[in-house]
C-alpha cells in the first residue's frame, strides 16, 4: 500500500497530523536513563509509550543515531514504533550518485518514508522514487535562516530555486509517493507552494522550538487532509528537568499540539 494511503489511514485513526520528532540528544536525556545500555532507546521507548496515541508518524533524525550504539537504538526504536502501528519517517536528508544512493535506498526496507536532498538531481533520488511503497519527502524550503542562501535564489525565469524544486518534485511524482519539506517558519512560501503543487503533501517542521506558524502549517501543509506537522524538542523535552516524570509532560505536549492543529483542520 502506498505510503500516503497508509498515512491517510493513520491520520484518521489517531485524528492527528502530528509528527513526533525523535531527536534524543544525549546531553538532554534524563540522568536516570544513562544507566541503560542504550540510553537513547530507553528514552525513545518511554516517549513512544507516552505519545503514540497522538502520533501520525515518528520522525527520528538520523543525526542523533550515527554511531554504533545509536544505530542499535534506532533499530529498536523503529521496531517499537511499528509495534504500536505508527509509521516511521526517517529524517536522513540523503542523496548521492546513483551507485551510492542505491545503498541509501536500502534504508526504505526498514522505514516507511525518508527525507531526501534534491541538490544532486533526479538520478540521485531515483532509487527512492522508484520505491512505490515508500514516502519520499524532498527538501524544498527549509525552516532554518540559511535556507535562503540557495533556496531563495532567483533563476533566469524569475522563479526562486525552491519553486523549481517543487515543480521538479511534482514531475518526479510518478508513483504518488512524493512530498515536500517546507518549514513552518516560512508561511508565505507555504501558501505559494500549496497553490503551485496542490496535490503534494508537505512535511512541515519548525513549530515548537523554532517558533513556526502552526496555523499556516495546517492550512497549507495538508493536501486533501494528508500531511505532517513536526515538533521534536517541543515534545520530547517538554519534561526536561522533571526526572522520571518526563514522559508524562511529553504526552501532554503531543496532545496539546494535536488539539491545536486540529482546530485548523477542515
Ligand atoms: O527535514 C526536516 O525534518 C527538517 C527540515 C527543516 O527545514 N527544518 C527542520 O527543522 N527539520 C528537522 O525537523 C526537526 C525539528 O526539530 P525541533 O526544532 O526540535 O522541533 C529536526 O529534526 C530538524 O532536523
From TrEMBL:
Lyase as a keyword? Answer: yes
Cite the Orotidine 5'-phosphate decarboxylase domain residue spans from the record: 17-246
- Specify whether Lyase is a keyword of the entry: yes
Keywords in UniProt for this one?
A: Decarboxylase, Lyase, Pyrimidine biosynthesis
What Enzyme Commission number(s) appear in the record?
Answer: 4.1.1.23
- What family is it from? Belongs to the OMP decarboxylase family. Type 2 subfamily.
Q: What is this protein called?
A: Orotidine 5'-phosphate decarboxylase
The taxonomic lineage of its organism, from the top, reads: Archaea, Methanobacteriati, Methanobacteriota, Stenosarchaea group, Halobacteria
Q: By which gene is this protein encoded?
A: pyrF
Amino acid at each position: 500500500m502506498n505510503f500516503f494511503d497508509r498515512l491517510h489511514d493513520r491520520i484518521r485513526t489517531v485524528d492527528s497530523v502530528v509528527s513526533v520528532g525523535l531527536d534524543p540528544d544525549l546531553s538532554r536525556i534524563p540522568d536516570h536513563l544513562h544507566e541503560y545500555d542504550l540510553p537513547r532507546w530507553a528514552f525513545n521507548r518511554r516517549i513512544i509509550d507516552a505519545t503514540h496515541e497522538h502520533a501520525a508518524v515518528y520522525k527520528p533524525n538520523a543525526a542523533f543515531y550515527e554511531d554504533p550504539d545509536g544505530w542499535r537504538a534506532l533499530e529498536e526504536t523503529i521496531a517499537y514504533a511499528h509495534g504500536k502501528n505508527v509509521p516511521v519517517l526517517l529524517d536522513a536528508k540523503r542523496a548521492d550518485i546513483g551507485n551510492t544512493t542505491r545503498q541509501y535506498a536500502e534504508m526504505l526496507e526498514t522505514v516507511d518514508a525518508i527525507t531526501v536532498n534534491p541538490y544532486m538531481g533526479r538520478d540521485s533520488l531515483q532509487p527512492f522514487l522508484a520505491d512505490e511503497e515508500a514516502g519520499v519527502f524532498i527538501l524544498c524550503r527549509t525552516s532554518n535562516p540559511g535556507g535562503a542562501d540557495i533556496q531563495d535564489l532567483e533563476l533566469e525565469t524569475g522563479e526562486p530555486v525552491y519553486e523549481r524544486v517543487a515543480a521538479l518534485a511534482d514531475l518526479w511524482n510518478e508513483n504518488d509517493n512524493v512530498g515536500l519539506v517546507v518549514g513552518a517558519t516560512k508561511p508565505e512560501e507555504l501558501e505559494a507552494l500549496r497553490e503551485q503543487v496542490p496535490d503534494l503533501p508537505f512535511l512541515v517542521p519548525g513549530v515548537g522550538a523554532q517558533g513556526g506558524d502552526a496555523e499556516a502549517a495546517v492550512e497549507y501543509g495538508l493536501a486533501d487532509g494528508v500531511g505532517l506537522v513536526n515538533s521534536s524538542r517541543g515534545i520530547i523535552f517538554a519534561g526536561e528537568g522533571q526526572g522520571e516524570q518526563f514522559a508524562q509532560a511529553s504526552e501532554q505536549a503531543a496532545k496539546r499540539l494535536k488539539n491545536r492543529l486540529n482546530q485548523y483542520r477542515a
